[in-house]
Design a protein that fits this description.
The structure is a single chain. The protein is built from 11 helices and no strands. The protein is an all-alpha fold. The protein folds into 2 domains: about 80 residues; about 90 residues, Arc Repressor Mutant, subunit A (Orthogonal Bundle), CATH 1.10.10. Helix 2 runs antiparallel to helix 3. The longest helix is centred in the first third of the chain and has 23 residues.
């Protein structure tokens, strides 16, 4: 991408394929982390190469963000019932006095490194909230709308998810 921007040229389909090749494994990890289903990953990863040839350079910068959002949206499609069933339990959670901010770059790296252990500690609601609020930095209200649950359930799930991540990172 630096070569493309440096030469002030439009990205070609091959450029986009290379960029997506670099992000393919991260998107695959994202779906597997969210759903726990490896086979679903290939179906959810969005391949935007076919539309890239006709778009502007600004679109190409946005494309990577869009691919991650579309991939999460696809993973979310089959999870609405499970999320709705789990939400009432998190509405009862008392988040305490500590406010957990979205994940730092360090914690994001540790999440990826320890993803199997963290995945096993968290239910699907906590994983989605961890990704949408903790990584994507969406507000609690926006995450609640995306997941179709209450803000208090999102806050409770994030509190639990952040604490599980913190414990895993510290080796507890």
């Amino acid at each position: 991408m630096e070569e493309i921007w440096g030469n002030h040229r439009c990205a070609t389909a091959d450029d986009i394929r290379k960029a997506f090749g670099d992000y393919h494994n991260l998107l695959r990890w994202l779906v597997a982390f969210l759903t726990g289903e490896e086979k679903l990953a290939d179906a959810c990863i969005v391949d935007a190469c076919t539309i890239a040839e006709t778009q502007t350079p600004d679109f190409h910068e946005w494309l990577i963000h869009w691919a991650a959002r579309a991939t999460v949206g696809c993973a979310l499609q089959g999870q609405h019932v499970a999320l709705a069933e789990l939400a009432p339990e998190y509405e009862k959670t008392e988040p305490g006095h500590i406010v957990h901010r979205p994940l730092s770059a360090e914690y994001f790296g540790l999440l990826i490194k320890n993803s199997e252990e963290i995945h096993s500690r968290l239910d699907v609601l906590c994983r989605f909230v961890l990704v949408l609020h903790g990584i994507a930095n969406d507000s609690y209200d926006k995450v609640a709308v995306q997941l179709g649950i209450s803000r208090s359930a999102v806050e409770g799930a994030y509190y639990v998810a952040f604490d599980a991540l913190d414990l895993a990172v510290r080796g507890a």
